[in-house]
Amino acid sequence: MSHIKLKCNDCFYSHDSNMSILNCKSCGGTVDVEYVESKDVQNKIVLNNGMEMIVPLKYPEKFVSLGEGNTPIIRLPNVEKQLNLDKIFGKLEFMNPTGSFKDRGTFMMISMAIEEKISSVVEDSSGNAGASLSAYCAKTGLEAHIFAPESAPVSKLGQIKTYGAKVHLIKGSRDEVTKKAKRFYQENNYIYASHVLSPYYVEGTKTFAYEIAKQFAFDLPENIIFPVGNGSLIIGCWKGLNELLEQNIIDKIPRLHCVQAEQFIPVIQEINGDSDYRMNDNPFSVAGGISVSFPARKKEVAKIINDSFGIGVSVTDEEIIEWQKFLARKEGVFCEPTSATVFAALKKLFDSNAISKKDSVLLPITGFGLKDKLFV
Question: Which H or E run contains 136?
Fold first, then answer.
């Protein structure tokens, strides 16, 4: 008997656990892991910080790792001074093995692939997710096919190729890349290891919540702001925080806010119930990691924002680049443009009185600056 099922987020139909299942067979909705009682299955792993976390693995002692997680949290005094705020913390997620938070989800997804004896996987990515998947496939001997837009940063494509993955460059939009990847895995009967849809990927990003709980001595800050494209980090964090709350390890959940580039605001549209919004024909943002027109999990992210009493805000490319430079020149933190969005969002939330001067704020700095195009 397995200790997990895959439950649809829309109609709640339950499926047996299988990596080939990415959408509900009944209604087409996204699915997530649901844990069922099974006393004979040891389904926890010990994280790098010593905390135990429930996982979907049948053999948790065999999980694949490159040393992901346990990234440091630092105070940002010059940002505090600039914004006139008392307590701002940055979690340096770019210190994960491949330079972004994506390793948190990948380690769990690839661990599941190994359990299911899968030999080849397909992913579509603008860079960081593809690099992460390629690294963990290299570690385990899996064949990786990465579909990426021709416009993806050269540094990220180079990283993917260095790990030995087979790269498929696609002309056109990010959504066109996804279509081509889906067609390829279906035609070749491969597994689609999607950081967007995989329920196991979210089980890995839960580690973010378990880490910050211990790093803040189980007294979490009032606010966390996430850059959101497809939403895997905020969804995993929310799930992890609720697990911790149910176990009485923490006694509160912070307000979770999200930020999107103004050219790509489908999640903010969902939060606001704005059905009239339309994307530009050829949108572009320097924040490539969140340049997603049609995120499959936007309803889930919007519900998280609303349930945690958070707010969704959009920022301009000019604001993003300005904050990327400020962080590098005043705090010594070199992040990619996508990561800088949370600082631009923090300013807007403070200016609109959504966050007060005395509130504590945590900002995940999700990717390293050398992985993206430079705007100096």
Answer: helix 128-140
